[in-house]
Write a structure and sequence with these properties.
- The protein is built from ten helices and eleven strands.
- By secondary structure, it is of the alpha+beta class.
- The protein has two domains: 176 residues, Jelly Rolls, CATH 2.60.120; 108 residues, Orthogonal Bundle (Arc Repressor Mutant, subunit A).
- The chain has a six-stranded antiparallel beta sheet, covered by helices on one side.
- β1 and β2 form a beta hairpin.
- 30% of the residues are buried.
Length: 307
């Protein structure tokens, strides 16, 4: 039975809308569900499709390429393919959320400009959207319309859902200048500093990174950085750097045809043997085996956890 959350969003727990599969050129998956602290992922992951994460509860957070963002109810997180991210759900009652994953086929040349504009909402430096008043109402009315259309499917349902979804994305683009999101992360100074370091690692993973170099960059002692980094992130610094490089290598292996040797050096490894050894350590298979397997299993999101 559907309910109205925050007097704004229609929701029915465990309700799903599915059109196609992730491996198809045309694919939609709407997942109305909830998640709890117990299933927080250990490390950031990526998808081969576009994803919108809409939290329907307060006090959750999101890591995007190592940067932390606080979220509140009805914030829209727009995640492009290959972007490393992880939702952090708080302790306590499970958080309701809506996840939308999709692929859209290539549009005719006449529409390329319009679609490029729509996709630009996924490429903002901070791809999180928070609207108020009539702008928020108009955006979520489109989503509610999709929910209602799916209740009584007929021959035209998939087409109408697709059209309504494009209108939804179009409104986010049109209202970009009305976005009031600001990141009010309430961290102590040490935690804030450690997240600045994780973000730096994600920006510079292809470069030479070391404990000594990062300690110097952030005016810390090596021992202090090592201890606090592990305390805040749950990872040793070296393992975090390696996992960031491996995740980015996975994305390049799946989403392109770049030679594996080039990927190794693109992702900051000093030699192919080091890349192969590190990749095996965290993924449990060689880069070539991973690429080959992913070609046959592209319908599944890649959620490889650290060993």
């Amino acid at each position: 039975m559907s309910i109205l959350i925050d007097n704004l969003v229609l929701y029915d727990q465990e309700y799903k809308i599915e059109i196609g599969r992730p491996s198809d050129q045309f694919f939609y998956f709407f997942d109305y569900d909830e998640r709890s602290y117990k299933i927080n992922m250990e490390f950031q992951h990526f998808h081969t499709f576009y994803e919108l994460c809409i939290l329907l509860a307060d006090n959750a957070g999101h890591l995007i390429n190592g940067s932390w963002y606080n979220l509140r109810c009805c914030d829209i997180v727009a995640l492009r393919p290959s972007l490393l991210h992880r939702t952090q759900y708080p302790e306590g009652a499970p958080c309701k959320r809506l996840i939308i994953q999709f692929h859209l086929p290539k549009e005719p040349a006449q529409l390329e400009g319009s679609m490029k504009a729509i996709y630009s909402i996924f490429n903002e430096k901070v791809p999180i959207y928070r609207f108020e008043g009539k702008y928020q109402r108009l955006v979520f009315e489109k989503l509610n319309g999709i929910f209602q259309l799916s209740q009584s499917p007929d021959t035209l349902s998939d087409l109408l859902i697709h059209n309504r979804f494009l209108e939804f994305l179009g409104l986010i683009y049109s209202f970009k200048n009305k976005n009031i999101y600001s990141n009010n992360a309430d961290f102590d100074n040490v935690t804030e500093k450690m997240y600045k370091i994780t973000a730096y690692i994600h920006r510079h993973y292809a470069e030479d990174l070391s404990l000594e170099g990062l300690a110097s960059e952030f005016y810390l002692s090596g021992s202090y950085l090592s201890h606090q980094f592990k305390k805040v992130t749950g990872f040793g610094l070296t393992n975090y750097i390696q996992m960031t490089r491996v995740r980015n290598a996975q994305a390049q292996l799946v989403l392109g045809n770049t030679p594996i040797t080039d990927i190794a050096f693109n992702c900051g490894f000093n030699s192919f043997s080091q890349f192969n050894r590190t990749f095996n350590k965290f993924v449990g298979k060689s880069p070539s085996a991973f690429r080959k397997e992913s070609a046959y299993k592209s319908e599944k999101p890649l959620l490889v956890e650290a060993a």
